[in-house]
UniProtKB/TrEMBL annotation, chain A:
It comes from Actinoalloteichus caeruleus DSM 43889. Pfam families: BPD_transp_1 (PF00528), BPD_transp_1_N (PF19300). Keywords: Cell membrane, Membrane, Transmembrane, Transmembrane helix, Transport. Belongs to the binding-protein-dependent transport system permease family. The chain crosses the membrane at residues 12-30, 97-119, 131-155, 276-301. Its main location: membrane. It is found in: Cell membrane. Residues 95-298 form the ABC transmembrane type-1 domain. This is Oligopeptide transport system permease protein. It is a multi-pass membrane protein.
């Protein structure tokens, strides 16, 4: 196991360098003048542009630029925006909000998705099964931004149950509705995955054995059936936590949440390359680490899996 | 002595008209486990498959009943019905009785049935790899019985689980108890399942083809172990198999199944000396024998009948070398043909007479 983890961590290095370079390339190769509109009505003075180009290594070849960026990054320095704000500070202000949002979404996914999956998986065909199949199909088919605007319009503007936009401090309560929106598509997948997994295992020989042993029904289901059916579901939820943070960009845009989604949104509009790169690099790291954790979790959940 | 045949002329006999008398009547006491007049059908989209058509057998304490028959004849369905682990639907029990110590299990409450499972009647399955839960240790799966059903503490249950693994002669039981089923070899896994089935000291053990999935050398060891445990604990054992060689060594009595019914039942010696049913004879002829090495094996001609369309008359008649006109019209009843022997064949008298 230890050697496996070491190998996986080593594999992360080329993946990390490759993806971050790609991001850097894409962000800094964006067309348009990054200094347009930075100095009010007039174009920026030559001297200012020269200082900036010097400061951001913009006259170096791209590889050198990237190398310098990477070196700083490894020392924990995300760089500065054009106006001199530390990107590290921006990110550390925005990240907790996004983590909160993603956790709420994950909770919705796990709770509603798993319960719907268990109910339909155990009972088999019937009204409940059809209801879940149809509603999950809807959730999967409708893009998040549609669900988001729908929730915002209906519950926020018309019924007035929730605030249409989230305030600056983004409390847990305020994030419930956006969290639900963010969760919607994955929730549908979790419900279906749980349902399939349970329906498959329900007929498994080891479940029959548990019944033949005279174990009470709640143990047959709760211990023998669910423990096995949980394996794919738990690993899906783990991988999804990484994906949710990236997916938060749209939801945060709709509800005007000051998380990293909103930060990226604004930074792209203002061509703040350093910020965009920083945030996306961080998302990549989170994603890679979550994937590794999920693979390890898989081995914990299923003893047949051995990594060595 | 009276004879009780489950006649197929009355397709849906009520359990009341079909007394729970065992095929071979025991004087005085009731048998430990007696199945009678058991009818089970599977209702699927392709139609109704009449899988069991009046099965009856019984087993007493300290005796081994072998249930023999081609694959698909209903051996497992009978066993699963006895255990109460039949999947209903698609299966439905349309008639019959299963008496354990005189108590009809089919009319017993769900909680009473659960109580009997494992403690009264335990079962071991053919494929231990799929029958054991892959994500729990072997120890957990044995201890679960002791803790949840006997209320033992974790520590005591662990101790007892190790004893049970020792009993089925798994080397290094102390270490093995912590391992998962996939870390065991096939034979060891089957031993572990036997240990699990013994956890609550059952009175009847049903073994459904316990050695079919194993290597030939391991098969013999597992059979010896089962026979020894059965003897030592004075258990009643129902051994389902299609291996006649195994049967001769360990069984006391044999019940032969065909198309969901018992066609012959007898003690092991007399049935080997002289089969009382053409199907039994065909089964024995199809067994490879040392003195006929090199000769072509006599396999039974034809296929078992489709259970959605069982032929009129004797279900074996399309394949039977002795079939006469009567066989195509009338289903033979299970009748006594000798002391302690029953057979369902119009020509069993002749079979028993000729040498
Ligand atoms: N779940 C099921 N659905 C439909 N038919 C079944 C099912 N289980 C068993 N059967 C049928 O019951 C018959 C007897 O099966 P079984 O008892 O397993 O035979 P065997 O004597 O080989 O153990 C077979 O013909 C099989 O097709
Ligand atoms: S009743 Fe007839 S067909 Fe059936 S086994 Fe006997 S002889 Fe053969
Ligand atoms: Mg079988």
């Amino acid at each position: 196991m230890g050697r496996y983890v070491a190998r996986r961590l080593l594999q992360l290095i080329p993946v990390f360098i490759g993806t971050t370079f790609l991001i850097y390339l894409l962000v800094w190769a964006l067309p348009g003048d990054p200094f347009a509109g930075k100095c009010g009505e007039r174009p920026c003075p030559e001297s200012f542009v020269a200082v900036m180009r010097e400061k951001f290594n913009m006259d170096d070849p791209l590889f050198i630029q990237y190398g310098k960026y990477l070196l700083n990054l490894l020392q924990g320095d995300f760089g500065e925006t054009f106006s001199g704000t530390s990107v590290g500070t921006l990110i550390s202000n925005a990240y907790p909000v996004t983590i909160r949002l993603a956790l709420i979404a994950l909770l919705f996914e796990a709770l509603i998705g798993v319960i719907a999956g268990i109910l339909t998986g155990l009972r088999g065909r019937g009204f409940m099964d059809n209801l879940v199949l149809v509603s999950t199909l809807f959730l999967i088919a409708i893009p998040t931004f549609v669900t988001g605007y729908l929730v915002q319009t209906v519950f926020g503007l018309q019924l007035g149950w929730i605030a249409p936009t989230v305030s600056g401090n983004a409390s847990w309560g305020e994030l419930l509705a956006p969290g639900f929106v963010l969760a919607s598509v994955s929730m549908a997948y979790v419900a279906r995955l749980t349902r399939t997994s349970i329906a498959e295992n329900k007929r498994a020989d080891f479940v029959r054995t548990a019944v033949a042993k005279g174990q009470p029904q709640h143990r047959v289901v709760g211990v023998h059936l669910l423990r096995n059916s949980a394996i794919p579901v738990v690993t899906f939820l783990g991988t999804d936590l990484g994906a949710l943070m990236g997916g938060a960009i749209v939801t945060e845009g709709i509800f005007n949440i000051n998380g990293i989604g909103g930060l990226v949104f604004r930074s792209i509009a203002r061509q703040e390359g350093t910020t965009v790169t920083g945030v996306v690099v961080l998302l990549v790291i989170v994603y890679l680490v979550m994937n590794l954790l999920v693979d390890l979790l898989y081995a914990v959940l299923d003893p047949r899996i051995r990594y060595d | 002595m009276s004879t009780e045949g489950q006649s197929a002329e009355s397709p849906n006999p009520s359990p009341l008209e079909d007394p729970a008398a065992p095929a071979v009547v025991q004087q005085g006491s009731e048998p430990l486990l007696a199945v009678s007049g058991l009818h089970v059908e599977f209702r699927t989209q392709e139609g109704v498959a009449r899988v069991l058509n009046g099965v009856r057998y019984h087993v007493d304490a300290g005796e081994t009943l072998a249930v023999l028959g081609e694959s698909g004849s209903g051996k497992s369905v009978t066993a699963n019905t006895v255990m109460g682990i039949l999947e209903m639907p698609p299966a439905a029990i349309t008639a019959g009785e299963i008496r354990f110590r005189g108590e009809d299990l089919l009319t017993a409450s769900a909680s009473r049935r659960r109580e009997v499972r494992g403690e009264g009647i335990a079962m071991i399955f053919q494929d231990a790899l799929s029958a054991l839960n892959p994500v729990f240790t072997v120890g957990f799966q044995i201890e679960e019985q002791l803790r949840k059903r006997r209320g033992m503490s974790r520590k005591d249950a662990r101790k007892r689980a190790i004893e049970l693994l020792d009993l089925v002669r798994i080397p290094n039981a102390k270490g093995r108890v912590r391992q998962f089923p996939h870390e065991f070899s096939g034979g060891m896994r089957q031993r572990a399942m036997i240990a699990m089935s013994l956890a609550l000291d059952p009175e009847v053990l049903i073994a459904d083809e316990p050695t079919t999935a194993l290597d030939v050398t391991v098969q013999a060891q597992i059979m010896d172990l089962l026979a020894e445990i059965q003897r030592e604990r004075n258990m009643g054992m129902i051994l389902i198999t299609h291996d006649l060689g195994v049967v001769a060594e360990v069984a006391d009595r044999i019940a032969v199944m065909y198309a969901g019914r018992i066609v012959e039942e007898a003690d092991v010696h007399s049935i080997y000396r002289k089969p009382g049913h053409p199907y039994t004879r065909a089964l024995m002829d199809s067994m490879p024998r040392l003195d006929q090495r090199g000769q072509e094996l006599n396999t039974i001609k034809g296929l078992p009948p489709s259970l959605t369309a069982i032929p009129e008359g004797c279900p074996f008649h399309p394949r039977c070398p002795l079939a006469i006109d009567l066989c195509r019209e009338k289903d033979p009843e299970l009748l006594t043909i000798a002391e302690g022997r029953v057979s369902a064949c119009h020509r069993s008298d002749e079979l028993m007479r000729d040498e």
